[in-house]
Amino acid sequence: NAGVTQTPKFRVLKTGQSMTLLCAQDMNHEYMYWYRQDPGMGLRLIHYSVGEGTTAKGEVPDGYNVSRLKKQNFLLGLESAAPSQTSVYFCASRGTGYDQPQHFGDGTRLSIL
Amino acid sequence: GNSVTQMEGPVTLSEEAFLTINCTYTATGYPSLFWYVQYPGEGLQLLLKATKADDKGSNKGFEATYRKETTSFHLEKGSVQVSDSAVYFCALTSGSARQLTFGSGTQLTVLP
Has residue A36 got a pLDDT over 80? Predict the structure, then answer.
């Protein structure tokens, strides 16, 4: 029972490099979310998707892009990485019931040098 | 906008002590309230939830009651264990996509 799987788990980038974080869920969930977690700030929403082919901005979207070409996958892209994007990134998904909880992956720890 | 304010940590307790972690919120409409727990190196797991005023969520000995009059959702446990050591997040959902707004988290350490 995989649930929500994030790859990679760790990555170190140089400033200006690009990369894509992958989130995959096997629960047939419609909604998917990307958060970043920084010390003392809890988790903040970057982008989210309410279904295949849809995306929307969250609280801190600048510097990130996302795509949801397949229902089970939600990709987070950094076009030109900056040190301020050093963080732990979490993906989550949820079903369509009004109070369904979000299910989280184990996170990707990203360092930008 | 919506916001969640949590008791600042870290909190250190001895095993079998009583735990309270305070959480208050500001929100429009009628949010649902959640407590999530994060163990070291892992993602967040749902601990408990409450969907309307006066609801009590409970799980694994933890409890929290949705208090609309005080806009609070304090987490309590009567007797903590070493295995409860983790970071605890209070959160609320809002919006058509039910986005989560999180508090800053409270680090709990329980000593044997």
Answer: yes
